Amino acid sequence: MQSSTMSGSKPTASTQAYLDIAEIKENTIVMKDGSLRAILVVSSTNFSLKSVEEQNALVNAYQNFLNSLEFPVQIVMQSRKLDIHAYLDKLRSTMQQQTNELLRLQTQEYIEYISKLIEFASIMTKTFYIIIPLSTAAGKTNLLGKITNLFSPAQQISGQQRGFNMSKEELDKRVNQVASALGGMGLKTIVLTTEELVELMYNSYNLSTASPIRIQSIEDLELAGNE
């Protein structure tokens, strides 16, 4: 029988109540203090395979990039497990349709090799992000403003949206500056959409339940490694 203490207990607050995130909209994270965040996913490059001249050029370009910034950025690397079972199934289907006996045997050996490999080790991929912030004056409302907002909620909402739009324009300028600088280093960048931001936040705060990245082809594997 359930005790009266348990039945009368208040529901526990969700994890979201303890986060600094107020909402996610228009490809932007809105913090509880009114500041904004945009997140770029950045491709990677194999530094060790480049010549000494190319390595020096990359180091100098990265140094110039950091020196050109007039605002802080945060660089984050996230490791995720790859699920390549769908990729192996596709290879098996291709093998069955292969008419060349030598190619069919080579495909079979490759499938067996990959299958044994994932039995003993998890295949991981690393994704690199750059978080670009923008502090705003949101939330710093004086007493008169608070009274006005209390009696004019529609005006408050309209003012908040105008303030958000103006701040987002400034944030977009920072995003373009960072993307342009990284593009000069041969790195590709993509601004995370609202749905991608929600998924990233969920996976970041729920690592034990985050789904592995599913890979179905070599092209997908290359994209996952360069996200």
Describe this structure in words.
The longest helix has 31 residues, at 153-183. The chain contains eight helices and seven strands. Helix 3 (85-97) runs antiparallel to helix 4 and helix 5 packs across helix 6 (153-183). It is extended. It has two domains: 21-82 and 126-225, no CATH class; 85-122. It is an alpha+beta fold and 227 residues long. Strands 1, 2, 3, 4, 5, 6 and 7 form a seven-stranded mixed sheet that branches. This is TraC-like domain-containing protein. It comes from Candidatus Doudnabacteria bacterium RIFCSPLOWO2_01_FULL_44_21.
Would you summarize the structure shown here?
The chain has helices at residues 4-7, 52-68, 85-97, 101-120, 143-151, 153-183, 194-205, 218-225, and strands at residues 21-25, 28-31, 36-42, 74-83, 124-134, 189-191, 213-214. It folds into two domains: 21-82 and 126-225, no CATH class; 85-122. Mean pLDDT is 80; it is low at 1-7, 143-149 and 215-227.
* Multimeric state: single chain
Distance between the termini: 52 Å
Strand percentage, roughly? 15-25%
Overall pLDDT level: 80
> Helix- and strand-based class?
alpha+beta
Number of helices: 8
Pfam families: TraC-like (PF26593)
InterPro entries: TraC-like_dom
Protein name: TraC-like domain-containing protein
Domain TraC-like: 26-206
